[in-house]
Design a protein that fits this description.
This protein has 373 residues and is an alpha/beta fold. Helix 1 runs parallel beside helix 6 and helix 1 packs across helix 8. Pathway: Cofactor biosynthesis; thiamine diphosphate biosynthesis.
């Protein structure tokens, strides 16, 4: 019998497992393909300010809290794993391609200022001084010095090593069901056996709403196509996000000479196809903003599913099934929210108390507020 069985070994499940093991709990993670979910696709942006959406203020506060935890989390993780996670603190530049895009940028800036967030409007010349690779057609920019990035795959690899070093057991198997015993979660049924556990953490990403034995959860797959390119050493100082004729694209440098270009956002269920149109739009817009992208080597195309929820915020803490703890629904911010999710969930598992920062994100908010249903 393990204290905690974690269903899912993506960034979220592994980080929860690592933190819970560091609190003295025995932890088993079950995943038949750890790291192959949304965590493989993530661009690694830690960007609560440039991701801030209208009516998403609670999510913004959670994101800012998690961003503040990232430097210590990254340092501790690197020390435990012995490998780097690629935290970059060069900030994020958002640019507008044409006059309409710049108007959109001004609206975004006004919204950010209303919320008291730090963002500086730049002229086209100032934007190019910061990022000389920008096309001369770029019409203006917004610098958010506090929005950073990590190498999401490096974080996942480090979490695997750190969790193992902390005593977490990783079982490479498929989870078929949450087993209930006397009205509470009592473990996981795997393809080959039952894993009894005192508590179960649900961290199956976009598949969290589909597992038998789990109460109904509003988690849906939001498809994202993303590209990886090589040969980008020195091309960009930090993340560049752009509005290009009303469409969004981002370019995130990582790992010395690599670049992630993303991402589409599509409601197409679990469709795993990388489409010609998806790749075309991303490359077309990225090359419009940074023409040199056209000279890079396209090394990978990938489609994965963000775990979407009705208010774009995660599902954290206890569920309506006693013993079942939720750590899912992180949608487009799962990398950013990994530290706060791991630390709040480990606190709940170790003490029975969900920290205040996570309290607004329990699943019962959808019952309380019909707006989201
Ligand atoms: C294109 C794209 C770009 C993104 N960019 C960013 C970004 O820049 N910044 C950011 O913060 N977030 C980003 N995200 C979001 C982020 O990737 C997710 O929120 C995060 O990875 C979710 O992590 P997770 O561990 O919950 O889910 P996942 O990584 O999907 O992990 C779930 C795990 O569960 C396992 N699993 C599922 N079903 C079963 C089963 N029945 N049995 C056993 N195992 C199972 C899977 O194998 C998988 O390993 C992006 C997402 C996409 C798709």
């Amino acid at each position: 019998m393990t204290d905690v069985a974690v269903a899912g070994g993506g960034l979220v499940g592994l980080a929860v497992a690592w933190r819970a093991a560091r609190r003295g709990l025995s932890v088993t993670v079950v995943d038949d393909a750890p790291g192959a979910g949304a965590s493989a696709a993530a661009a690694g942006m830690l960007a609560p300010v440039t991701e801030a959406g209208y009516r998403e203020e609670p999510l913004l506060r959670l994101g800012l809290d998690s961003l503040a935890r990232w430097p210590a989390f990254a340092a501790e993780l690197e020390a435990a794993a012995g490998t780097p996670v690629g935290l970059r603190t060069a900030g994020t530049l958002v640019v507008g391609f044409d006059e309409d895009d710049v108007r959109e940028l001004d609206a975004l800036h006004a919204f950010q200022r209303e919320l008291g967030l730090a963002a500086h409007r730049l002229t086209p010349r100032e934007a190019r001084r910061r990022e000389p690779a920008l096309a001369t057609r770029v019409r203006g920019g917004l610098l958010v010095e506090g929005d950073h990035s990590v190498d999401g795959r490096a974080v996942h690899a480090a979490l695997l090593a750190a969790a193992e070093a902390a005593g977490v057991v990783l079982v490479r198997d498929r989870v078929a069901e949450v087993v209930t015993d006397g009205g509470r979660a009592g473990g996981l049924r795997l393809a080959s056996r039952v894993l009894p556990a005192d508590r179960v953490v649900l961290a199956l990403g976009a598949r969290s709403g589909q597992l038998p034995g789990v109460p109904p959860l509003p988690v849906r797959p939001v498809k994202g196509q993303v590209l990886r390119l090589a040969g980008a050493a020195g091309l960009l100082e930090g993340t560049v996000r752009a509005l290009v004729r009303g469409r969004q694209v981002y370019l995130v440098p990582y790992g010395g000479d690599r670049l992630v270009v993303g991402a589409t956002s599509e409601d197409r269920g679990f469709d795993a196809r990388v489409t010609a149109g998806g790749v075309h739009d991303l490359l077309h817009d990225a090359i419009d903003v940074v023409p040199e992208v056209g000279e890079l080597e396209l090394t990978e195309t990938l489609a994965r599913w963000r775990p979407g929820t009705p208010d774009n915020a995660p599902l954290l803490g206890p569920s309506s099934l006693p013993g079942l703890v939720l750590a899912t629904g992180h949608h487009r911010n799962g990398v950013l929210l990994t530290p706060v999710t791991a630390e709040a969930t480990a606190e709940l598992l170790a003490t029975g108390e969900l920290p205040e920062v996570a309290a607004p994100f329990t699943a019962d908010r959808f019952e309380r507020s019909p707006v989201w249903s």
